[in-house]
Amino acid sequence: MMEHEFYIERTLRLAKKAEGFTTPNPMVGALLVKKNQIIAEDYHKKPGTPHAEALVISRAGEKTKGSTLYVNLEPCCHTDKRTPPCTKSIISAGIKKVVIAMLDPNPKVAGKGVKELSDAGIEVVYGILEEKAKKLNEAYIKYITTKKPFFILKIAMTLDGKIATPDGESKWITGEKARKLVHRIRSSSDAVMTAIGTVKADDPRLTARIKGGKNPIRIVIDPELQTPLNAQILKTPPKTIIVTKNSNPHSIQFEKLNIELLYFEDKLDLNWLAAELGKREITSVLLEGGSSFNSHALEQGIIDKVMFFIAPKIIGGKDSFPAIGGKTFKRLKDAYNITDVKVKKIGNDILIEGYLKNTGS
C-alpha cells in the first residue's frame, strides 16, 4: 500500500503541472511501473489533446505489456468527446494492473471505467490517497456534478477585519508574497469575479502576473453599465463578461468593443449566474470584491471555499470597510461555519482557508 501511495502521489504532482489549463477537463497524471521502475510518466495538457493514460502508453511502447498503470482519476470509457476512451487503450496495451486514486464523478464514467477494466481481466485498485485526489480536482468535481463553477471567496484584510480605509485606500494591505500567491490562484482559476465598485475605485487588471501563468476571464457585476470604456479590465485578454440589467441604453457601446454582456432582469440571482457561467464551461471562479459583494455572495450561498489573507496591521475606525458588509448579520448560532480549516504563514501575513457548506447548488 505504501508503494501505491508513493506512485499515486507522483501522479498528483504530474497532474498539477497543468493547473488552470485543462478546463473543463480534470487534471490527470499517469505513470507506468514495471519491475519496480517507472518506465513512462506524463499528464494531460489541455482539452482536445491526448489523456495522460494514452500518453504514457505511447511513451512506453512495447514495454507497456505486463506493467502497472497508476493514475489519479478513473480512466474514461465514454466516446462522446474529442479523444478516444482510455479503457480501450489500456486493455489493448496489455497492462496487467491499474491503481487509481479516485473514481470519476462524471455520470458518464462513475465506476464504469473500473468495471470495463475488471471485466477484461485487469486487476484494479482504487481509493489510494482519495481525499488528496479530490482536493486537487475539487473544481472539476463541483462542475461535473452540478454544472456550476466552484467559487472561492478571497479577502485581503487587516488584523481588525478591514479591507479598506474610509476613503477607499486598500493598496497594499498584504505583503508581496501573499500577492504573488493570489496571482497563482488567479492563473489556476477560469475566471475572476468582481463588482463595479472595485472597478471604479481601483481600475484593476485582475491578471495573473506570474511566469508561465494564464490570465483568467474577468466577470464584472455592473447592473447600470458604469464600467468606463477605457477601464484596464476591458483591454486585457482573454475577455471580460459584464453582468448587467437587460434594458440599458449604453449596451451598444460595449457590444462594439466585443465585450460580452450577460443580461439579468430586476434583481441579480447569483445562483442563476453560476448556472450561466457553467453553460460557458467556466468551472472555477475567484471572487475579489468589496464588502457588499462579499456579503451578497455568502447570503446567496454560492461560496464553496474561503481564503482570508490577514496582514499584521490595524486600521481601526467604524467607517473603514469591513471584509463582509451588508445590512444583515447572522446570530452566532446561525453564523457561517468554516470546515477543514488550514492556517499558513505567507511572508508576514497569515492565510486562513476552509470550506463552506454550499447552499446554492
Head-to-tail CA distance between termini: 36 Å
**Main sheet overview:** 9 strands, mixed
Secondary structure tally, helices: 11
CATH class of the largest domain: Alpha Beta
Name the CATH homologous superfamily of the largest domain: Dihydrofolate Reductase, subunit A
Could you describe the 3D structure shown?
There is one protein chain. The chain folds into two domains: about 140 residues, Cytidine Deaminase, domain 2 (3-Layer(aba) Sandwich), CATH 3.40.140.10; about 210 residues, Dihydrofolate Reductase, subunit A (3-Layer(aba) Sandwich), CATH 3.40.430. The protein has about 350 residues and is of the alpha/beta class. Helix 4 links the parallel strand 4 and strand 5. The chain is elongated, with a radius of gyration of 23 Å.
Name the descriptors.
361 residues, nine-stranded mixed beta sheet, single chain, 28% helix, 16 strands, Cytidine Deaminase, domain 2
